[in-house]
Amino acid sequence: MLELYRRGLSRETIVALYKFIGVIMALQPAKDEELHEEINQTPEEKQMSILAIAERKGREDGREEGQRLVREMISDILEIKFGVAGLRLIDHVEQIAGLEALREIRLGLKRAQSVAEAETLIHAHAHENGKNKQEEVS
Known about the structure:
Elements lengths: L1 H5 L4 H14 L4 H11 L3 H45 L2 H5 L4 H13 L3 H23 L1
Helix pairs in contact: 4-6, 6-7
């Protein structure tokens, strides 16, 4: 429905279209009720729905951008402290999804004295990240 509204169809045209579709096709009661609620929304309510969707998308994009930036910082720290040996650990960092876990790795790498310490730190978070993903699936 929102797509039709975005494409410039008037409310009356959309309602007529849905009535026509309703004549030729019966909806499940729950979907029928959902459709009527959407049709009866005011333009302001529709605009608020669109804004809510945009805000959620913005938060998701911001989270992804934050993760990308922290991964870059981790890569820089690994390269500066441990050279090429440190950069071999980046593939493991790329597998870690949580922003908080990435931040903890970044802070831990500041204190790490060897590649082995850095590797242990990264693998601990990668292992924890894997457990969290399994729990989400269960």
